[in-house]
Design brief:
18 helices; two-stranded antiparallel ribbon; 65% helix; 2 strands; mainly alpha
C-alpha cells in the first residue's frame, strides 16, 4: 500500500495535550497518545518508567552469581538509582509545568513544540542514569563475575524489552518455556548451545528495536504537532521493520532449541512456544472434545470406531493446515497495522461508520477455520445415531427446523446411493465419511461449543507449522 494517507484531524488531540499542560503541568502523561495516534507504540510508552526496580535484584544475583555480601551493596545501588531517577524525572515535570503561563497564550502546536524539547532531552538523561548505575554494579564485581556480564545484559533486556512487543510471538521468552517443559539434565545440556545462541541473537535484535523506539519519539511528536499523518505512520513502519527482525530471532530460536532438545522434549517445547506466540490461533478448538466424547461412547459399533478414528486423524491434519494458514495471515498483516489503523482513525474522524475488524487476510483465514469446524461437526453427526449424539457433551436438543433440514440431507444421500447402486444405511451411520452423513436416521440435534476444552487443543496430532512460519 503506497498511497499517502490523508492528513488526520488531530486538533482535538493536540488541544487535549495542551490542556493537560495548562491544568496539571504533567503533559508527559498524555504524550504516549502520540505514538498510538499513528497505529503503534514508541519509546514514549515507557519513557518515565525506571529501567531498574528493587524486584530486579534476583536477576542480578542469578546472572552474576553474586555472593551474599554483594547483595546489600546492590540494594544500595538500586536505592540510589531510584532516588536519582525520580529527582531527574521531577525536574522534567517541573520544567513542563513552568510552561503553563507561556502556554496560556499559545496555540496547541506551540505547546507541543515546547514539551518536545524536554522530553527528547529526558530520553538521553534516562540513558545516562542507566549507564551510571550499571557502571556502579560492575565496579563491585570480581574477575569471574565480570565474565558473566554479557549474560546479565541479555537477561535484563529480555526482562525489560520483551513486554514492549506488538507482533504475535515478538514478546515470548524461550528460556522460560524451556524451563516450563522441564527437560532432563542430559537434554538441557545438549540444548545449552542453542539456547545461548538464541539469547545472543534475540538480544541484538531487541537492542536495535529499542533504539528505534527511542529514536521515534521526536519524529512522532513533530508529526503530531504538524498533523502529518504520513510522517507519523512512516515512523511507526520503521519500528515495525525492527519488530519483524525480533520475531525472526524468536522463530529461529524455536526451531534450533526444538531440534537440540530432541524427540522427547522438542515437540512439547515447540507446541508450548506456538501456543504462547499465537494464543489466538492455538487455542482449544471446539471439535476435538466432540470427537473424544463420541469415541468414549459405550455402544459404538466396530465400524463406528473405525470411522471415528479416521475422522480424528483427518481432522488433526486439516486443523494443522488452517492454523498454519492463520499464522501466516497474522505474520503478513500485523506489520501493516499502523497504516491500516491510521486510515480507520481518519475515516472515523470524518464521521464515517467504521467497523473494527481484523485485516482481510486474517478474516479470511478465520472463516476457513470456522468452516472446518462446521464441516467436522457435520461429519461427526453423520457417524453417530441421534441417540448417540445426545449422549455426547456439546450437542444440544432439537431446535425448530432441524428435523426438516436433516430429512432433506437424508433424501439427497439416499438418491446418491441409489445412483451408485448402494443399499440403505444402517443405524449409527455405517457409510463412514461418504454417503449419507445422517446415517439414515433423522437428527434432532444441533452442535454448539463444547462444555469442556480439549486436553491439548491440537486435535489428534501436534501442530506441524514449520518453524520458519511460526513466531
Amino acid at each position: 500500500m503506497t498511497r499517502l494517507i490523508p492528513t488526520l484531524n488531530l486538533t482535538k488531540l493536540r488541544n487535549r495535550i495542551a490542556l493537560a499542560v495548562l491544568a496539571a503541568g504533567c503533559a508527559f502523561a498524555s504524550v504516549p497518545t502520540a505514538s498510538a495516534q499513528f497505529g503503534g507504540r514508541s519509546g514514549m510508552a515507557s519513557m518515565f518508567t525506571p529501567d531498574f526496580l528493587p524486584r530486579d535484584l534476583p536477576i542480578f544475583v542469578d546472572a552474576l552469581a553474586l555472593e551474599e555480601w554483594q547483595r546489600p551493596v546492590l540494594e544500595v545501588l538500586l536505592q540510589d538509582y531510584d532516588t536519582n531517577f525520580n529527582t531527574a524525572a521531577d525536574g522534567v515535570r517541573a520544567k513542563m509545568a513552568s510552561f503553563k503561563d507561556v502556554a496560556a497564550g499559545a496555540n496547541a502546536e506551540r505547546v507541543l513544540e515546547m514539551i518536545s524539547e524536554p522530553l527528547v532531552a529526558w530520553t538521553a538523561e534516562k540513558k545516562r542514569l542507566r549507564e551510571d548505575f550499571l557502571a556502579g554494579v560492575r565496579g563491585t564485581l570480581g574477575d569471574t563475575q565480570v565474565e558473566n556480564w554479557p549474560r546479565l545484559e541479555r537477561a535484563l533486556r529480555r526482562e525489560k524489552s520483551l513486554p514492549l512487543g506488538e507482533l504475535s510471538g515478538e514478546s515470548i521468552d524461550l528460556t522460560v518455556i524451556v524451563r516450563e517443559v522441564q527437560p532432563s539434565p542430559l537434554a538441557l545440556d545438549g540444548a545449552r548451545n542453542a539456547i545461548e545462541q538464541y539469547e545472543v541473537a534475540l538480544d541484538a535484535a531487541l537492542a536495535v528495536r529499542d533504539e528505534a523506539l527511542d529514536s521515534a519519539i521526536a519524529p512522532l511528536l513533530r508529526a503530531m504537532s504538524a498533523s502529518d499523518a504520513n510522517s507519523g505512520v512512516a515512523a511507526q513502519e520503521a519500528i515495525m521493520q525492527k519488530r519483524v527482525v525480533v520475531r525472526g530471532a524468536q522463530e529461529a530460536g524455536i526451531a534450533a532449541i526444538r531440534d537440540a532438545l530432541g524427540g522427547e522434549y522438542g515437540p512439547a517445547f515447540e507446541r508450548r512456544a506456538l501456543e504462547k506466540s499465537f494464543p489466538q490461533v492455538f487455542r482449544p478448538d471446539p471439535v476435538t472434545p466432540l470427537i473424544e466424547g463420541a469415541q468414549a461412547l459405550p455402544d459404538l459399533t466396530d465400524d463406528q470406531k473405525t470411522q471415528l478414528s479416521a475422522l480424528s486423524t483427518q481432522y488433526g491434519f486439516d486443523l494443522n493446515g488452517v492454523r498454519s494458514a492463520l499464522v501466516d495471515a497474522y505474520k503478513v498483516a500485523e506489520p501493516s497495522e499502523p497504516r491500516r489503523r491510521t486510515e480507520l482513525a481518519r475515516q472515523k474522524a470524518e464521521g464515517q461508520t467504521v467497523r473494527l475488524t481484523d485485516a482481510p487476510q486474517v478474516e479470511q483465514a478465520k472463516k476457513a477455520r470456522e468452516d472446518l469446524y462446521e464441516k467436522y461437526r457435520n461429519l461427526l453427526a453423520g457417524i453417530l445415531s441421534p441417540e448417540q449424539r445426545t449422549a455426547v457433551p456439546g450437542f444440544v436438543k432439537e431446535s425448530p427446523g432441524d428435523a426438516e433440514k436433516e430429512a432433506a440431507v437424508r433424501e439427497e444421500a439416499r438418491a446418491i446411493r441409489a445412483a451408485q447402486g448402494g443399499g440403505g444405511g444402517g443405524g449409527g451411520g455405517t457409510q463412514g465419511l461418504r454417503g449419507d452423513p445422517s446415517g439414515g436416521k433423522p437428527s434432532n440435534e444441533k452442535p454448539q461449543q463444547p462444555g469442556r476444552p480439549a486436553d491439548s487443543g491440537f486435535g489428534a496430532n501436534p501442530p506441524t507449522v514449520p518453524p520458519k512460519s511460526v513466531d
